[in-house]
Inverse folding.
């Protein structure tokens, strides 16, 4: 699937981007010709580069000289059109993992969220459209918060989805697709590293409200969704994994175990939902099953394929409140992915599932 391809990963130094790159370097989907990691943080690029190569080489100079042929790091900003053009002009595949994803941060800085999450996607589309770059596929990474959005992060991700899906109309030589999924376990800024740190310091463990539920999947399952969409998705489709859901309080209880640590309710943060939705009621009637995924078909009539199978895989919205794991099931899920306290993974989740 990726054999001999040039792949650009925007936001490639984030938790998701790093896992995508690591998986591609493994060769499991074929050996790429080149992987270009584009981000604007030189320190994270340095750390990522050296995490692969410090055992093999002594200096950055040698790293650049010997490894640029496969893994290339580029300082650049998804908000800057020229940076985007420079990065993707020779790409076969573009995976847009660049995002402002923290709900409270986006609430306080909505313009910044628009610039990264919306204008960044628009820059990718514009670069391909205006310059005729031979990009075969663009995959945009979205979130369950884009479904019936009530917060700035979700609103901007919903717009990103529309920008990407609509791009298929004026760019028939490029396949533009999306993936949408829930909370990624132990990614940067997620609740698990926070709970681990709070437990390590003796508590209390802070939750918003006990009844809050969230879809959960590992970084590797998130990458599986991207790879599956790359292989199977048709132009204009959005892939959604059939992910489990649990309550935040059960995650806290699972991690605390028999420790004498209190749970403190802090109330809902700005822009939060009690339950997340992965597929809305409006989208359910044009949603089809594809193995362990749902594919949301495009709403635009120009993108509909008469040969596509009948829709209606869901009779209602796909909500995290539908089937909530109990405490024992939540413990089993966390143990499966080596996320219990005794597993001792790094607090920031950066090396999770390595």
């Amino acid at each position: 699937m990726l054999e001999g391809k040039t792949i650009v990963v925007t936001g490639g130094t984030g938790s998701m981007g790093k896992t995508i790159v690591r998986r591609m370097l493994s060769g499991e989907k074929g050996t790429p010709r080149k992987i270009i990691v584009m981000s604007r943080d030189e320190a994270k690029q340095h750390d990522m580069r050296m995490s692969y190569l410090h055992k093999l080489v002594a200096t950055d100079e040698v790293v650049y000289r010997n490894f640029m042929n496969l893994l290339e790091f580029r300082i650049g900003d998804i908000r800057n059109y020229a940076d985007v053009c420079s990065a993707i002009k020779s790409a076969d595949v573009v995976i847009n993992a660049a995002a402002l994803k923290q709900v409270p941060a986006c609430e306080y800085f909505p313009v910044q969220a628009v610039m990264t999450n919306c204008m960044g996607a628009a820059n990718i589309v514009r670069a391909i459209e205006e310059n005729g770059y031979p990009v075969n596929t663009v995959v945009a990474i979205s979130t369950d918060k884009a479904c019936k959005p009530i917060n700035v992060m979700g609103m901007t991700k919903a717009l990103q989805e529309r920008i990407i899906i609509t791009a298929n109309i004026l760019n028939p030589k490029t396949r533009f697709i999306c993936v949408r999924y829930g909370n990624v376990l132990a990614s940067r800024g997620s609740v698990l590293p926070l709970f681990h740190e709070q437990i390590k310091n003796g508590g209390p463990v802070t939750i918003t409200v006990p009844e809050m539920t969230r879809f959960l999947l590992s970084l590797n399952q998130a990458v599986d969704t991207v790879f599956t969409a790359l292989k199977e998705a048709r132009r204009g489709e959005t892939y959604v994994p059939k992910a489990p859901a649990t309550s935040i309080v059960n995650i806290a209880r699972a991690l605390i175990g028999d420790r004498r640590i209190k749970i403190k309710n802090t109330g809902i943060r700005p822009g939060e939902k009690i339950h997340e939705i992965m597929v809305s009621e409006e989208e359910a009637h044009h949603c089809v099953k594809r193995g362990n995924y749902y594919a949301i078909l495009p709403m635009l009539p120009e993108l509909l394929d008469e040969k596509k199978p009948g829709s209606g895989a869901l009779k209602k919205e796909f909500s995290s409140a539908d089937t909530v794991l109990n405490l024992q099931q939540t413990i089993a899920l966390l143990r499966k992915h080596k996320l219990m306290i005794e597993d001792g993974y790094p607090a920031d989740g950066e090396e999770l599932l390595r």
Remarks:
- The chain has a mean pLDDT of 89.
